[in-house]
Amino acid sequence: MKRKRNYRLFLLILFCIFLAVTIIWVTRHMEMQPSNRNILLKCNVYCAIQLDNRTIKPLSLHQTERQSTGEEGLLVPNVIHFVWFGDPWSFTFLNYLSFLSVHKVLSPEYIFIHGENIPNGYWWNRTTLDVSNIYHVYRQAPTTALNGQPFKFKEHKSDLARLQIILSYGGIYLDKDMIVLKSFNQLRKYQTVFGRETKYALTNSVILGQKEAPFLKILNLAYYAYNGPTETWTGTSLRVPDSMSRILPAMVHVEQDTFNRPLWNDLKVYFHGSYNWSRLYATHVWARKAKQTGLALPKSPDDIRHWNGSFGEITRFIYYGPNDVV
Predict the structure, then answer these.
(1) How many CA within 13 A on the CB side of residue 26?
(2) What separation in angstroms does the CA of 150 have from each of 9, 226, 228, 229, 323?
């Protein structure tokens, strides 16, 4: 069975190589047609924006004018994308900290939540007060992969959606339990950025990408070879990006250990011990894994005020600020 899976993965990689060569050839020999997608129109404070010819009103109480990123000469726009499919999203204190970290550290032009439902709950209401420029973009979850195969894992629906969102609009995708710790500006000069998760897999908990970046096009087309009922958890979503990054290193920048850290097997040390987070651009809390291993998550500021360990340091850094940590 393992040999059969490895053979399928080998065929998938060959397929991706063929697609890569095709895309490179087309890009070099044909002029790209201008997109008719109305991406982001600059607007005044408290006004709606246009996205794909849809008028989208802000959810935040306060809107903040941001400096246009195009003048900085950076390829990736300073626009944040979150994705949530399924049941209504009951916002947690951890989700609030994630959005607050984006607001404080990255100061994005826009924060988009893509999905069927607008979040709810006390910490969502607090987020709309404390975090500016949030918009909800209605988007249904994909029902199948691009080849019509059913998704084996529901999480793969979001994997495909986040890839297509960055491909279509450009910007930064983040999982809802990521906490940003320092500016991404040094990374936004690359067309595409992924982080490493394991030796043979990249992570898609953070993705930076320029609109219509060639590497993202290749990864999107890989979903035409999705294996349906025999697909593995990491196959198309994580292992194919890793393989393609080794074949086409000029198309993507890979951060080795500054995105998806700590890994799930270091959570106990992270939560209640000492973990060096000084180099991290962002940290992954692994909320679901933490619950599965019996680690409690903070539910309010009272829980982090005297939390011992690196996780307490990080959450206080975001909530109280670097000069007001208690």
Answers:
(1) 11
(2) 18, 9, 5, 7, 50
